[in-house]
């Protein structure tokens, strides 16, 4: 296998974007091309989950490659639910590593705010099992609610721990100009005061409004290539050193122990092994906190903390900026936003910025090893990536 | 006739699946017989959901995962005032959703 490097990156604000989806996908690609100094690519992968349903557009990659005037490069759309972004990066990795292509552009894009919030939630709910979950009204928040309740009972996680994740990630997003939510929140305001129950209403008991990520539009792009080409970009060299992926049962009730996220555990182990690094080597990580509980549990399943101790590390401040292992410096899905198909590319964008030393006020000092966990379905398809800065 | 939800029993290893699979998760075999699933069991976890898809006429519903007698698990709606993990429940097959075109039937659980 050839080694694979990041030559260029680009991103849009994660927010409500009043542009056609194709232009949303193309904008960060233009930025990434400029960032890399490249004019042509061999292949384009576009990550997206819901364009056919929400935006009435299929064959998205064909439209994007033409809009960018990159024809006749090959182009495919990659749909893997909320893990589409990291899946598309994995496809780019395979293409360059195998020698099939030298330069691959990966752009993830989503425009869910074209419809109202309920329709967007319903579009995401089609990820659930159609006969055994969806017909009952099961949505991703309700699966998160049932999961959170079990986790609270088994490990002593409280609503206050969940709120601490939200407060930390909102604080981080204040330092990220591309983040969806620029709103400082406090434990007082969302959990500790009598007004908190009004400010922070129940969504799927026991999870509340501030435990859920927003519905965002947005896009992010990475250009993957060989060492020789990446060196010409003039940026510090960042290598995509490990990729891992694992799946779990479609219906959550089918899992032997529903408090375990085995696909996270499996994908992370592969991504670390391929890169030859240990969880304790990681300087900065982006975890898929579509719900606050997920940041805590993923931090355990990927190996940063022991099972059942993620909330204790959070309490000790180990996961905040300046802590031992800062998690979701971008603001995470919680506050940076969750444009579903773009999210995994957005996570990688943050890690590359951190490893290049370009993260501004949220820079983790001398970050050399970064990690992302992109979580599809309710943990039924997970892709993890390990990035390493060289030199 | 009383309605039931069907489980899928592997003809080789006897594992009961719900929902159905093309290949058995335990042994990989591809033949199953159907059987009505039991309706009693215990509640493993639950939530009360306040943001429902637009086709629901109610403003909130209870949802839960139940381990049925015999060990097969199922997700269903709950009609229980104050649910608790581990409580005994009894289910009935009822209409659980109407999306404007079709009625969908599934398990609704009550306090046993
Ligand atoms: Zn079998």
Please provide a written account of the structure.
- The complex is a heterodimer of chains A (391) and B (112).
- Chain A is α/β, with parallel strands linked by helices and 391 residues long.
- Chain A has 15 helices and eleven strands.
- Chain A has a domain of 129 residues: Peroxisomal Thiolase, Chain A, domain 1 (3-Layer(aba) Sandwich).
- In chain A, the strands form two sheets. A nine-stranded mixed beta sheet of chain A has the order 3-2-4-7-1-8-11-10-9, sandwiched between helices. Chain A has a two-stranded antiparallel ribbon with strand order 5-6.
- In chain A, strand 10 and strand 11 form a beta hairpin.
- Chain A is globular.
- The two termini of chain A are 21 Å apart.
- Chain B has a five-stranded mixed β-barrel with strand order 4-5-6-8-7. In chain B, strands 2-1-3 form a three-stranded antiparallel beta sheet, with no helix packed on it.
- Chain B is globular and about 45 Å long.
- Chains A and B meet through helix 5, helix 6 and strand 5 of A and strand 4, strand 5 and strand 6 of B.
- The site of zinc ion has 8 residues of chain B, from loops.
Keywords:
heterodimer; A: 391 residues; alpha/beta; Peroxisomal Thiolase, Chain A, domain 1; 15 helices; 11 strands; B: OB fold (Dihydrolipoamide Acetyltransferase, E2P); three-stranded antiparallel beta sheet; 0% helix; binds zinc ion
How would you summarize the topology of this molecule?
The complex is a heterodimer of chains A (391) and B (112).
Chain A: E1 5-11, H1 21-36, E2 43-47, H2 51-55, H3 60-67, E3 74-78, H4 84-98, E4 103-111, H5 117-125, H6 140-155, H7 159-174, H8 187-192, H9 196-199, E5 202-204, E6 207-208, E7 217-225, H10 227-231, E8 237-247, H11 262-275, E9 284-286, H12 292-301, H13 310-315, H14 332-335, H15 343-356, E10 369-376, E11 381-390
Chain B: E1 6-10, E2 16-17, E3 32-36, E4 40-49, E5 61-68, E6 73-78, E7 88-98, E8 103-111
Parallel strand pairs in B: 6-8
Antiparallel strand pairs in B: 1-2, 1-3, 4-5, 4-7, 5-6, 7-8
């Amino acid at each position: 296998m050839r080694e694979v490097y990041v030559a260029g990156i680009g991103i849009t604000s994660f927010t409500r974007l009043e542009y056609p989806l194709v232009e949303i996908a193309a904008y960060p690609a233009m930025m990434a091309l400029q960032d890399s100094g490249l004019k042509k690519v061999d292949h384009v992968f576009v990550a997206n989950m819901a364009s056919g349903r929400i935006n009435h557009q299929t064959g998205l990659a064909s439209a994007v490659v033409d809009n960018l005037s990159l024809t006749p490069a090959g182009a495919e759309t990659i749909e893997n639910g909320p893990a589409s972004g990291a899946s598309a990066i994995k496809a780019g990795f395979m293409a360059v590593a195998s020698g099939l292509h030298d330069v691959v552009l990966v752009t993830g894009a989503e425009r869910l705010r074209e419809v109202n919030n309920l329709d967007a939630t319903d579009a995401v709910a089609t990820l659930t099992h159609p006969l055994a979950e969806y017909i009952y009204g099961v949505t991703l928040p309700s699966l998160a609610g049932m999961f959170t309740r079990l986790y609270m009972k088994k490990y002593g996680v409280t609503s206050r721990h969940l709120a601490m994740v939200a407060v930390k990630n909102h604080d981080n997003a204040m330092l990220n100009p591309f983040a969806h939510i620029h709103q400082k929140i406090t434990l007082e305001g969302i959990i500790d005061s009598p007004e908190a129950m009004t400010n922070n209403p129940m969504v799927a008991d026991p999870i509340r409004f501030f435990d859920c990520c927003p519905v965002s539009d947005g896009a992010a792009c990475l250009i993957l290539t060989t060492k020789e080409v990446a060196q010409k970009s003039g940026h510090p060299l960042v290598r995509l050193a490990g990729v891992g992926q694992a799946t779990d049962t479609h219906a959550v009730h089918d899992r032997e122990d529903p408090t375990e996220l085995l696909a996270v555990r499996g994908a992370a182990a592969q991504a670390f092994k391929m890169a030859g690094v240990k969880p304790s080597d990681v300087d900065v990580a982006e975890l898929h906190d579509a719900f606050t509980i997920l940041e805590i549990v993923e931090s355990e399943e990927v190996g940063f903390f022991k099972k059942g101790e993620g909330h204790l590390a959070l309490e000790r401040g180990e996961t905040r900026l300046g802590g031992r292992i800062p998690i979701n410096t971008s603001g995470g899905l919680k506050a940076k936003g969750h444009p579903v198909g773009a999210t995994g590319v957005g996570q990688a964008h943050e890690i590359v910025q951190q490893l290049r030393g370009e993260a501004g006020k949220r820079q983790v000092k001398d970050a050399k090893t970064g990690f992302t966990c992109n979580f599809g379905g309710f943990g039924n398809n997970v892709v993890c990536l390990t990035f390493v800065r060289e030199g | 006739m009383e309605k039931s939800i069907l489980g899928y029993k592997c003809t080789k290893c006897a594992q009961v699946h719900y929902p159905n699979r093309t290949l058995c998760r335990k042994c990989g075999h591809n033949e199953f017989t159907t059987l009505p699933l039991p309706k009693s069991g215990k509640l493993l976890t639950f939530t009360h959901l306040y943001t429902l898809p637009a086709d629901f006429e109610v403003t909130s519903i209870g949802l839960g995962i139940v381990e049925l007698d015999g060990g097969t698990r199922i997700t269903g709606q709950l009609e229980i005032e104050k649910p608790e993990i581990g409580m005994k429940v009894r289910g009935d097959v009822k209409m659980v959703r109407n999306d404007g075109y079709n009625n969908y039937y599934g398990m609704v659980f009550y306090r046993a």
